[in-house]
Design a protein that fits this description.
Structural class: alpha/beta
CATH class of the largest domain: Alpha Beta
CATH superfamily of the largest domain: Spore Coat Polysaccharide Biosynthesis Protein SpsA, Chain A
Number of helices: 15
Distance between the termini: 61 Å
Shape: globular
Number of strands: 19
CATH architecture of the largest domain: Alpha-Beta Complex
CATH topology of the largest domain: Spore Coat Polysaccharide Biosynthesis Protein SpsA, Chain A
Length: about 500
């Protein structure tokens, strides 16, 4: 245990975070211990860890999705915490230096009208007796940026991404939040046309999002003939982690207070675990498309969900046979074949010589786990984790979504394996979180607790080290049953910077 001693003031601060001193000391020990890099065996490829669904099978698989959706099993989970400030990093730089040079200004003014928020920008400018066209002609770029980013106008730098206008339509432009409502209507509604949606927001944004939802929800319910059951949750402060300096001692701010930082997207496992869900679609807030591209997105959402149902039906059948002691040697052989061929579970060498009861117990434990079906797109240079076969301590391998920070890049072999990945993870998952008896799994039982991240950050020019919990779709789901399915690149359209909104797939019309 760390030799760090906390003051009474520190202990009050720790308690306010919802943590205990013991938990914080254990976090500090993780910094001292360092990360446990995963050992890549090989990248997943088509027919070796990644499934390519034949076109002839799409209809039957999507039919499985439709059948279970009608029963009310589907729910959409959208991580949407945090402000959109990182989207506008370059624009903040321009604002701080008082504007743009002639080349930057010409490009900025040429692009401005393409953004879906331009009409809102024009309105707030007019409210102050100004005209956006005059401001553009006069090269008043700093003033325009202030109207976009600050509370003087749209306040986009302080809003969540969910409330930013992403796409242009003849009947009104849509935010990312609205696009997710539309998606939910297309693939989660039940027989009574109810759509269940859950967003995670920071506490500071919940009121604004709730008010906006009240204004727009009825319009979308009428347009798509649905009812929305929308719930929010926040990332709890108790999932924050302490920051340390480069000597692994608690990092303190200029006032001498301890510094705690969000524990990364792995902290949202608590939110996911708390949902009263069954089959849960997981997709980031900024990965949405305009209506003209929704058909392919909707199709492959149904494919992922249908494939999960297909596997669940087999898994649940096998688990019932074992639990009711109706499985014979032939059934056990079928189960082992299913595990190997459909779930990519590598069996340990000792299993073949094991007794019948040992085989039953082993297979039961392997099958009675949450299941995730993960869409994988061809690697075209986008940042993000990739699908890999990972070496496990018992000599077997497992399918994992791996981030670059999880591997030892000092190893030429590991670096070469990382670089050879043919696909990457667009955070497009469908999760089955109930067992064959319809009881919810405790998702914390299936986390690889050693898959945390450590990164170096800075605060006001001072270096610090930050600890992130096992990633939600990485170590937090390490011991789930997993299938990777290839999906078209058209289903992945993230908005990480404001200029991503100018990509052709986000433009509803040509300019």
């Amino acid at each position: 245990m760390s030799g760090v001693i906390f003051t009474e003031s520190d202990m009050r601060q720790i308690e306010k975070e919802g943590l205990t001193v013991d938990q914080v000391l254990k976090q500090i020990d993780l910094f001292k211990r360092g990360v446990f890099p995963v050992k890549l065996n090989r990248p997943c490829t088509i027919n070796d860890g990644i499934i390519n669904i034949p076109e002839d099978d799409l209809k039957s698989i999507t039919a499985l999705h439709e059948e279970e959706a009608c029963k009310g099993r589907m729910l959409k989970f959208v991580p949407a915490s945090g402000a959109a400030s990182r989207m506008f990093r370059d624009w903040y730089i321009y604002l701080e230096k008082g504007g743009l040079d002639s080349g930057e200004g010409q490009k900025f003014s040429g692009d401005l009208k393409k953004f879906a928020f331009f009409s809102d920008l024009s309105r707030v400018v007019s409210r102050d007796g100004e005209y956006i066209e005059d401001m553009i002609k006069s090269n008043r770029y700093a003033d325009i940026l202030a109207y976009i980013l600050t509370s003087k106008g749209l306040n986009y730098g302080n809003l969540p991404k969910a409330l930013l206008k992403f796409h242009t339509y003849p009947d009104g432009n849509r935010t990312a939040l609205e696009e997710h409502l539309v998606e939910a209507a297309l693939y989660t509604k039940d027989a009574g046309h109810l759509c269940q949606v859950h967003f995670t927001f920071s506490e500071e944004h919940q009121k604004d999002v709730g008010n906006y939802l009240l204004r727009v929800k009825k319009d979308y319910e009428e347009k798509y003939n649905v009812k929305y059951d929308v719930k929010f949750s926040t990332q709890k402060s108790s999932t924050n982690t302490i920051a340390v300096d480069l000597g692994n001692y608690p990092f303190r701010d200029q006032q001498g207070n301890l510094v705690f930082r969000p524990g990364g997207h792995g902290a949202l496992l608590n939110n996911l675990n708390s949902i009263d869900g069954d089959i849960i679609y997981l997709k980031n807030i900024d990965n949405v498309v305009p209506d003209r591209l929704k058909p392919v997105t909707t199709l492959y959402k149904k494919v992922l969900g249908g494939y999960l149902v297909l596997l669940q039906n087999e898994i649940f059948k096998f688990l019932r046979l074992i639990s009711e002691r109706e499985a014979g040697n032939g059934a056990i052989d079928d189960m082992i074949s299913f595990c190997e061929k459909r779930l990519n579970i590598v069996m340990p060498v000792w299993l073949e010589a094991s007794s019948f009861s040992e085989k039953c117990a082993f297979i039961y434990k392997k099958l009675n786990r949450p299941i995730r079906i993960c869409g994988m797109v061809k690697n075209e240079g986008e940042p993000g984790g990739g699908p890999f076969w990972v070496n496990e301590g018992d000599g077997t391998q497992s399918l994992q979504i791996v981030e670059e920070s999880q591997i030892d890049l000092r190893s030429p072999e590991q670096k070469a394996l990382w670089s050879s990945a043919t696909h990457f993870n667009p955070v497009d998952l469908v999760c089955g979180v109930r067992d064959y008896r319809s009881d919810k799994f405790d998702l914390f039982e299936f986390v690889d607790i050693n898959s945390y991240f450590i990164s170096q950050k800075s605060e006001k020019g001072r270096d610090l080290r930050a600890l992130e919990l096992p990633g939600l779709w990485n170590g937090a789901m390490a011991f789930w049953n997993t299938a990777f399915i290839e999906v078209p690149i058209e289903t992945f359209n993230p908005v990480k910077t404001v200029r991503d909104l100018l990509r052709q797939q986000h433009l509803s019309r040509c300019f």
